[in-house]
Amino acid sequence: xxxxxxxxxxxxxxxxxxxxxxxxxxxxxxxxxxxxxxxxxxxxxxxxxxxxxxxxxxxxxxxxxxxxxxxxxxxxxxxxxxxxxxxxxxxxxxxxxxxxxxxxxxxxxxxxxxxxxxxxxxxxxxxxxxxxxxxxxxxxxxxxx
Length: 145
Fold this sequence. Notes:
- β1, α1 (14-30) and β2 form a beta-alpha-beta unit.
- Mean pLDDT is 84; it is low at 116-124.
- The protein contains 5 helices and 5 strands; from the N terminus they run βαβαβαβααβ.
- By secondary structure, it is an alpha/beta fold.
- 46% of the residues lie in helices and 20% in strands.
- It has helices at residues 14-30, 55-77, 92-103, 117-123, 126-133, and strands at 5-9, 33-40, 83-89, 107-111, 138-141.
- Among the domains are: 46-81, no CATH class; 92-102 and 111-145, no CATH class.
């Protein structure tokens, strides 16, 4: 198996930062390219019209914050790794699966928040969903300490 492209899925959570660190380390070891992907669900940009913050403005602010996070991760961890940053709004799981195919990723690296019980039931598990639907291997980096 030739792992020449690694898709790292990232948000601004501590578990995601661990996944980014691991993914870049793995990419350096394998001589692989990296796409660092962040997906924003449009529904998370509710805004507050009473305060003059409309959903479109809230989405722009979320994109700006996510873009800055991706750039920070690239600056901190991408040394000597050919890296693309990709930010998209849409359904997280569907966007990840589509990006795998469109970019030709050979491996996906995701972090897990380590939720269990009711937290997992109500929030769902992005990592678990990607594992179930991915056409390529998925490396899940646990939140840990």
